[in-house]
Each structure stands twice: as structure tokens, then as C-alpha cells.
Design goal:
150 residues; alpha/beta; Rossmann fold; five-stranded parallel β-sheet; 16% strand
Length: 150
């Protein structure tokens, strides 16, 4: 079986690359997908495709709608959804993705540091696992796929 894993959340660190590299090192049968991580492209895709907007609300709304086509489709196709909450910014979109995945009954792994434990307690409760490092996520995938412990 080829597992589909969607990597949602913050875009300012290398956590995705670390998970992908770790999965490749273990030869896990996983295909990864993610939102568009180019911040400018993600923000401006709606107006670049559908036309300019003078009002920032509608500018953002167009982009959010276009991005939602990708996000919803890939979360719906995923076997596992990993959602990373970083330290620098509040990731409202990540929280939305976690809730959407939970509502769909997707297996959910939340990734954040200990400083976010209280703020994310409800999100964590909806998850099947909460990890603090990308390497722990790789070990979760390895265990789930191969029943193999580190």
C-alpha cells in the first residue's frame, strides 16, 4: 500500500523536509503532499488568476478560495494528516486543517513544541498522536506502516 500523508502547517522551518528525508531513509511507502508553501504565491494566487482586487478582504478571500481547492482535495485523499504549529506565527490555517481532518475522521498527528501544549489542548485531544519533533513523526509513520519500533 502507498500511504498518502498531507503535511499542513507552518512554512518557516524545515520540518517537512526532515519528515520526507526520514521517510525516504526508512524506505517508507509514503507519498507526501502539502499546501503551497510559497507565502507570496499563496497570498496572491486568487488575484493573479481571477483579477485584481482593491479591497484587501476580497484579495485575501479570492486566494483563500483557490487555495482551499488544493487543501480540501489533498486532505480528503490523505490517509494521515500531520499538522505543524510553529513558534513564530499563529497558524489559524493549520488549526482549521486539523479540525477539517478530524471532522473527516482522518488519522491526525499534531506536531508542536511543549510551549504550545496548553493553547492547543483541544486540537491535541482530536489527534491520534502529538509529537514534538519531525523525527518522532517519522517513527510514528514507521510504526504504523511496518509495526517497527525505533
Amino acid at each position: 500500500m502507498q500511504w498518502q500523508v498531507y503535511l499542513s502547517g507552518e512554512i518557516h522551518t524545515d520540518w517537512r523536509e526532515r519528515i520526507v528525508a526520514g521517510a525516504q531513509d526508512k524506505a517508507l511507502p509514503v507519498t507526501f503532499s502539502a499546501p503551497v508553501t510559497d507565502h507570496a504565491a499563496s497570498d496572491d494566487c486568487g488575484v493573479a488568476i481571477l483579477g485584481a482586487e482593491e479591497n484587501k478582504f476580497w484579495h485575501d478571500r479570492k486566494g483563500a478560495g483557490v487555495n482551499a481547492i488544493r487543501t480540501r482535495t489533498l486532505i480528503e485523499k490523505a490517509d494521515i494528516v500531520v499538522v505543524r504549529f510553529g513558534d513564530k506565527y499563529k497558524q489559524w490555517n493549520a488549526a482549521f486543517d486539523a479540525g477539517y481532518a478530524a471532522a473527516l475522521g482522518k488519522s491526525l498527528v499534531i506536531l508542536h513544541g511543549p510551549d504550545h501544549a496548553h493553547a492547543l489542548k483541544e486540537v491535541d485531544e482530536a489527534a491520534q498522536a502529538v509529537a514534538e519533533t519531525p523525527e518522532q513523526v517519522v517513527e510514528i509513520l514507521n510504526y504504523v506502516i511496518n509495526a517497527s519500533l525505533p
